[in-house]
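ARCHIVE CARD
SHELF: 3
SLOT: left
DATA:
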Amino acid sequence: MLTIDRAYGKYSTYFQPPPLPNCRPPPRHEMLPCPHHARHLVISAATVAYTFGGAFNDYFEDPKKMQVFRQQPIFALTRMGYEALFHLQSTDASYLQSRLADFATKTTMDGNMGRGLSIGIHVRHGDRRPYEFQYKDSYIPNDIYLDEAREQLYKTFETSGKNGTEDLMSEMKSIFIVASDDPDVYSTSEFSHAMRAQEHISLASKTNSAPPKPLPSPRKFVEESVGWEGGFFAGMFWSLGKPSGSSATAAKEIDTSIPPSADALKLRELVGRAYLLDLAILGKSDRVVCTVSSMGCRLLAVMMGWENAIVKDHWKNVDGAFEWRGVEW
């Protein structure tokens, strides 16, 4: 949920936030989802399309620039929100620092004679389908991610060696770092030599889980394997913690009127922490390869920063000829 507070002034051209008032938060009855000129405007998933409509782009895009550079003001606003709100809990933050230090060690040459690249690859499956027409009912093949990652590697070190030759040592010290909402992606042949972004919180795959045990019954029923299959699906997430005897449509019909149990909240927290930790680690990579149709991919660009991701072109989309956009319809 996002709160835009208009009681203390409006964002300037460069989106510098107004100074925080030294007072209490506004009363709950003054925090409203509409109208847009409310003093304390609250935005949720249910009202985001209404609030961030075409008028939002018309107002915040830079009309003097072309292509993705029109999006720079929206990018700056998103970056400000990321810096204010993206904070890992203490144990995850400690793991993040140790993991980044481990990657830095792997990419640094002996005697500090140079270093390789860390190339992050974000593979989104589940209920997020690609923009590219030929893959709209499936997913972007793994080899397309890998080809782009290799292209970034070769382009960086093609002429950076001695006398303008290929820097093979730096290429050999480079690493590919993979993060995905689909656990089966890590075991594919394309990413067999890549490193997982993090192993602090891992989602179990059905194919890698322990074989199911037969239930004690004359008919020898076999209990279904439990695991995270095929990526992130909203229905699957909201069904976490529900009794196993739920109806077959429980994962599709989200009943928000029933408060979640403590176990359900713990399971959802683990999934959320794993996702955020993946993004936090990939966002520190030297290059990122992902699909712009995924919100996580667009967030990774924000985490890298405008100069690094857009100006230097270190953020690469493999889902069609689309550019970074802050708002998706």
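SLOT: right
DATA:
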Amino acid sequence: MCRNIQSLYNYDPPTTEEQVRAAALQYVRKVSGYTKPSAANAEAFERAVEAVADATDRLLQELVTSAPPRDRATEIARARERAALRNQAA
């Protein structure tokens, strides 16, 4: 999976619409191969981003878990540690 797409489920504070849209944008960019589509493809690209964001939001609302919510700041710190280890190994 693309490292730019973040896990969005079961966090405290809850995932925002902006985070859902950012993940959808990264997904559509990856699938389409465009970072910025041409004018001819802009409308289709934007529709795809909205569709993926809607599906993601619906998924997040329907999932259930008994696990306690994860702390976003702690998860970010762990990700930075993993990145630092990757950079040292390279």
